[in-house]
Amino acid sequence: MGILDKLFGKKKKKKTSQEKIAKKPSVQKIKENKDVEGFINALKDENKDVRRNAAKALGNIKDERAVEPLINALKDEDGWVLRHAAEALVKIRDKRAVEPLINALKGVDSGVRIHAASALGKFGDNQAVEPLIQALKGGDSKVRQGAAIALGKLGDKRAVEPLVLALKDEYVGVRLWVAEALGKLGDNQAVEPLCKALKDEDSTFRRFVADALGKIGDNQAVEPLILALKDEYRYVREAAKKALEKIKQK
């Protein structure tokens, strides 16, 4: 069976889901049959669907021979190929991927930068902290959001001050994940700014802020959270109550 057949299956009569699952080759069989090279070659196919499926397959196989070809696929013109290549590199977890992902984060294409930020957060390498901090400061709002999420996952204290500043981002979608990241980092420097953010006009953001204050667990947040128990929205009040319970337990 050729590589295209493995990626898409032969065009015969439609099969049931059970039949498709039964016919699907296992990762172990793919390895045994040395199809890694076939999937690597498929990354250069003119058909974007072939390239997408090849990138996904290589991520599942987790063979180090695919690292350099997947790094090259980060330059693919198709956003989904790039996304699957970035996710595949995260699964393989080879350090060679970090610098190219950082370079992708520094690029001009917002879609590329978003996928790079996500991959760097999952990769867990602190080389990415400073580039992610820079990405948090400007450009597309989804890139800033992705940078905030990634910084929360990395857990590096260098991100605290930039994240505090980003609590004032003009887009609430960014502010939500900034608050979430600060909660994960658990640094007391964020408590006062988060307490002020409890007065933000967006109720969902106030809920995220209350959650973050509960995770940090600093007593400075008690009075502002007590005031938040009177918030007009129930989910904010519930978040404030849970946060107070967490602080009490610490």
UniProtKB/TrEMBL annotation:
Give one Pfam family, short name only.
Answer: HEAT_2
InterPro entries from the entry? ARM-like (IPR011989), ARM-type_fold (IPR016024), PBS_lyase_HEAT (IPR004155)
Residue numbers spanned by region Disordered: 1-27
Single GO term (MF): oxidoreductase activity
Q: Indicate the segments annotated as coiled coil, or none if absent.
A: none
What is the protein name for this chain? TOG domain-containing protein
Recorded source organism is: marine sediment metagenome
Per the UniProt record, the lineage of the source organism begins with: unclassified sequences, metagenomes, ecological metagenomes
